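Aim 2, interim progress. The first record below pairs a target sequence with its structure tokens.
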Amino acid sequence: MARVAVVLLGVLAAALAASLPTTKVVNPYQIIRRGVPPPPTEFGAAKAHNTMWYTQKLDHFDALNTDTWQQRYFISTATYVPGSPIFLYLAGEWEASAGEVEFTFVGELAAAHNGFTIDLEHRYYGQSRPVPDTSSDNLKYLSVDQALEDAATFALDMKASLGLDGPWIVVGGSYSANMAAWARARYPHIFFAAYASSAPILAQLDFPEYMEVVNEALLATDPACPAVIQQSTDELDVLIANGDVAQITQLFNLYTPIDLANENDVMNLRSYVSYVFAGEVQYARGDNLAQICQTLIAGQSTPLETVAQLFRDYFGGFQVDIVAANMFEYYRTNIAFSDDITRQWVYQTATEFGYYQSLSSPDQPFGQNVPLSFSILFNTEVFGPQFTQDVSQAGVDRTNLEYGGLNPDVTRVLYTHGSLDPWHALGRETDLSPESPVILIAGHSHCRDIGSPSSTDSADLINARNRVIQIIGDWLAAAKK
């Protein structure tokens, strides 16, 4: 039977089940995306965009390095009136597509202001590949600093070559929302304003608060829901203590019998279980959380059997490989560019952001048995022993020093967050100033406002999007006076 293993080291969180392959020819290690969800497939192929390539510098900070590479971008003039704003959407740790602007709120926002739209793919992701592979030496050019210089250089060139002399507004979601806010702060002479959806602007090495928000979202859905998960965690603890390999392996449909003497494999399993629920919360849509809680409360014969059934359903019947050594070996040796961008993103977290969602807080139902050290172990095993906790902490400290953490000195940056989004715990929740407001959207999660509008959108979501259009419109109008 085909097997699937998913890295669940705290940098990853999104629904995977719908994208699992149906054949035995599979990439055995699939990342759970934490970026912006792609537009629904029913929207079809984008038509208004043109795919373009831009010759970009490899290293913006070394004048002696003249190497270049081709960066992909998409443009649309469908709603553009000359002199109107240019909306530069920065893709993050995913493959960019024309549809993520055309069929989302970004396109509606641009249309509301007669805007020109550009979707710029991030270096090292998608088809924007500045180096032959993702070997550790080649990853040295992957950083948010380089990516921001990409955006600034690109914008200046487009202004000159295409005559795009209207105000430039930079937009992003999730990690790229950080980039949008930071681009406005670093290059105020280039970017007039920024719209940052679900931006975790505080870099933080250990992020146990993520699972606390997951718990809060489930509590808000049904107060009895997390208690069932906690009971299942207690049952699993007993099975582990009793050495019941066969039952654990069967319950979770593991590819090989779990080695209970290997604490890394046990931690990997615990992480997998927690992220089944974390992914559902991070990308909560419609009544998915209510359905999960109803299933948990209705229950099987025991809470653990109920949780295990949800786990098996989540992975579509595929067996799951939770052997940590296999995971480390795969990402250490597979350095070719592919659809799986785990190596690139974990490198960024190890050197710049942290964001490791440990299971260490008592205020969540998944146990306190997966510490930060498990994420650091991934870094050292995959990238080398020099990638220590101290190195990662230094990178986190440098990011906050450079960009201001939760208190950046910015104007005309609009932040939005969903109340259910676990990432809002690292974002601004109150206005920085009258010119840097925050919109909190009740009952919604990660990047929902920037995603595809729907006829079933709530009044809170619709109002939030209208406020985004109005605030940006007010800034544009004020600039004309």
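The second target in this work package is listed in the same format:
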Amino acid sequence: MEAATDVLLVTANVGSLFDNVGEIQNEWLQELYKTIRCYKPQFIALHFQEVGGKDYMFNMGHAEDFFRSIESSAEMKDFDRVSIYMDNRFQVEESFTALGSMYFIHKTLKDVYQYDFNVKDFKAVSGQNKHVGSLDEVPTVEKEKFPKHFWPDFKWSRKGFMRTRWLIHNQGLDMVNVHLFHDASNLIACKSSPSVYSANRKNALRHIINRISDHRYTPLPFFLFGDFNFRLDTLSLVQHLSTSADVQTVMKDSSNEVERIICEEKDNDHKVLLHIEEKLFAYLHQAFFRADDGKALLKYDKEAAAFQEVVREENITFPPSYPYSEEHAKPTQYMNTRCPAWCDRILMSHSAKGCIHTGDDGEQKVVYNTVGSNICMGDHKPVFLFFALKSNR
């Protein structure tokens, strides 16, 4: 029987864990460990975005504690090799991404190597390998912040990507931690289809794929996982939600800018059905976004499809991963700040899909889901992919 390695990939925007340090973080960790106990992986890759949160200058110490608590937890004691990367050098604005990646190798898993980008060769992984700082001189990771000149009309932020390269039972893989640009204004997001933000993310993702597929290094099958900030086609969705409503656009005083959009139900005493402002997206029937795991919304989720010739994704069978309430007692409720969307994703190259082990019955045992679906995990629910990786012997 062909040997296979059980692999767990997890992506999590953890910004709110540091902006609200307290009971959320502890329960967040317990849900992660519960997932690890359930699937018993031999190789774990954790990709974090927004390490340190919005107030990262103040919170970076908490972030280091968070990484340390995972690494030293009893749950991880049987993972005897660890590679950790934490970009926390916020003083270096031109390269700071606030990305963090942790990789754990179980003691039962032999024959694992990691790539050194300087010498262009794989080296056996041993012990605890921790890299905290700017990471620019670390040979086992490639990191890039998106250049400022790419998008001069947008505020330069901590967005970028980080790549590591692995050889597991002779199967080479790239693991890429991704953080793309968000929708700064709901009003601008629903101005056009696709939105200007969507076009911006498309350019950024194309840049990443080109960078990891160029011939500086031999191209390998790859997994891209992180906060892509993919949003629903907001204009089309708003048109659908307001089909039987009176739509009123309120302009700012003495300017040509929209201040808010109000959709009122024609009957039902003109109750406000949908209220949109720059940072407000309040829909009267919020349960719609979680009904049947958000299945009715999938037709508005179009951003990944633009790359279908290069990457694919397992079927999404969970509700939008963002923006959940950060109130402990409301773990399944969305905040009225943004239109719910599947921001947190795990994409793979078509060649990576071919590396997933198929059982004797022809089935691929793949699980794609959220961590902590009924627990407050902050504004993003982490997303995981579990699968068995073929050996390449």
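The helical segments are 15-19, 23-39, 56-71, 186-189, 196-213, 234-241, 350-353. This observation will shape the mutagenesis plan for the next reporting period.
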